[in-house]
Amino acid sequence: MGEGGCWPTMDLLRSEPMQLVQLIIPIESAYRTISYLGDLGLFQFKDLNAEKSPFQRTYAAQIKRCGEMARRLRFFREQIKKAGLSSSSRFRSNDIDLDNLEVKLGELEAELLEINANNEKLHHSYNELSEYKLVLQKAGEFFHSAQSSAAAQQRELEVQQTGEGSIDSPLLLEQEMTTDPSKQVKLGFVSGLVPREKSMAFEMILYRATRGNVFLKQAVVEHPVIDPVSGEKVEKNVFAIFYSGERAKSKILKICEAFGANRYPFADDLGKQFQTITEVSGRLSELKVTIDAGLLHRNNLLQTIGYEYEQWNLQVKKEKSIYHTLNMLSFDVTKKCLVGEGWCPVFATKQIQNALQQATFDSNSQVGAIFQVLHTKESPPTYFCTNKFTSSFQEIVDAYGVAKYQEANPGVYTIITFPFLFAVMFGDWGHGICLLLATLYFIVREKKFSSQKLGDIIEMTFGGRYVILLMALFSIYTGLIYNEFFSVPFELFGLSAYGCRDPSCSDASTVGLIKVWDTYPFGVDPKWHGSRSELPFLNSLKMKMSILLGVAQMNLGIALSYFNAKFFGDDLNIWYQFVPQIIFLNSLFGYLSLLIIVKWCTGSQADLYHVMIYMFLSPTDDLGENQLFIGQKFLQLVLLLLALVAVPWMLFPKPFLLKKQHQERHRGQSYALLHSIDDPFETEPHHDSHDHEEFEFSEVFVHQMIHTIEFVLGAVSNTASYLRLWALSLAHSELSSVFYDKVLLLAWGYNNVIVLIVGIIVFIFATVGVLLVMETLSAFLHALRLHWVEFQNKFYQGDGYKFEPFSFALLSEEDE
To answer: Which pTM value belongs to this model?
Structure first.
């Protein structure tokens, strides 16, 4: 919302001034008015028919029509996707009449359904004939092999005159080998295909049901067959069952039906078999030509639909959203006008009035729409005018809670503080350059990426590309301060200030270093890396730096609470919340920050832990060697007293003053001015009855006590929470150092090309996977927590609601 199309200058500190507006629109221009407001996208309608069900509203029939057209378009989209075609070739912006579009979509759906039905019948016939052809081929092989073996057996019997017949001969010879013609038996047979996975069970059930009085012959079909019923490819076997008697036949037919076996007729005469195969092959070729022609016609139709699909889809969505909005308006008493209420930014007044006039003119209405501002105590929605750069930072804040109307917006400060705190934990200018290159790829190709569908993770990364850009730039900056490039120090800004005590010193990194040059001009001196005192020095530096940054950001949060109270005219919060909070925080942790700076400037050896602990335990004792400046003891006593006074200052006065204000407000209520009730527009639709409620002093006092305790304890815990900056920075540095020393340098030391290549690959994967992905996510989440909890809870209420205007630009693809 608001990416482009913002007329006023961007002021993110306060949300845009909003106004509640009443629109009185003649019925003949209502549709066009709502359409023009949707194009403008700066008016949020209120539902004046909330008590009515969707079916009782005025334009329910039109919404039903749009829903039916949307269903047809979804059907077209599924068919286009199923056919493997695209649906965004030619897009024209001219609108189509809804009635004509409805007729056209109905005709196209009927035609497509008819084509699909015919195509399905043809495919069914084609698949049946394909199976029939397989049965003819395989069963023909059965009969041919059986007759060959029977003929050979007959010749053998004529020679031998004795012996028993084979298991095949009684079934397949023209007459049984017996001398009694009256005992000849004519066998019947059933042929078809059965799914291969059911063939064993099929055979067992057959033998059990007929008590073994059948002969089953099966042949495997090499390739999967498309089943005529399901339309899916299935591996099948061709079978031929020989039986005797009608009872056996009825059992076999029932078993075939139960197992989903498709039966096909088969003639035992070789001539008829050949003739049938020829006929089936001819019909298959004819069906193939017919099916191909039908598919070509169907694809041409779908391609034609695909050219217009995006335009039709957008048009139907617009129509549905317009009628849905019209249903939120109510009729006036004359039933000739529609009355609507809603919120709009003050700056958009002129644009909305122009849209109303244009709609009146275009619809040839004799009466113009009326635009009237209403006065209300209802809290307006929150609207920040953002662009593609600031919107992602605003989303970070909105994920915690949408700002109350016109309260100070932390998003302004988040643009700088969020990537900076991330960079404090991620300080390495080598890793920062990698992040920068990755995000520059997204920024350079943002037009291409914004027009296509991305995966969830890629889409989330692309949406926050400008956040990652600043994170990368600040990481390069803090990496230069830490002097770390993949954990390796460089003398970028001059020579190191330290050198060997004498020319013969062999281990310059651990022993005998003295200061021989001026102090290293920017960041950490490269000679600290690898020395014995590296870890104590960097730990002390980063821990103190974390406290300074934390106290500064918390002071900023309390300062913003002052600007909020000043803006809303709340003097109680200034004197009994802001003042004691700023005194309490700075009496303790502001003083600690002062001690850190003084210690850095003077090079003192004072123990700050001892100073802060005994400031509470023994405030009157002498500081001794821990004294940093003259008058420190007196200052500590004053600050301690101020911190102790600030707690009851926060707790007690505010509830009593709130009670006094409530009593004074209700004492003069009987003599309030009488408002005219003749003008219906002056009445409030949602009257605020909270002013007439009894003042619950105990509830207010308990709430203030909880708030006070939370702030006092939070001042300690929040300051300690900022030490995560030190902890994650140390973890990142040590992990980077381990990967460099124990992987890259170790592989280099083997003097083997293969080992070196493997080492480089492992180093790259470890750096990308752990340091550039996991560590980035970890630092991001910790920076998020510091903003949401430690910073925003000092001033940010976040109990507002977003301005969600009626806008065609916000119609998503999933919104049906």
So the answer is: 0.79
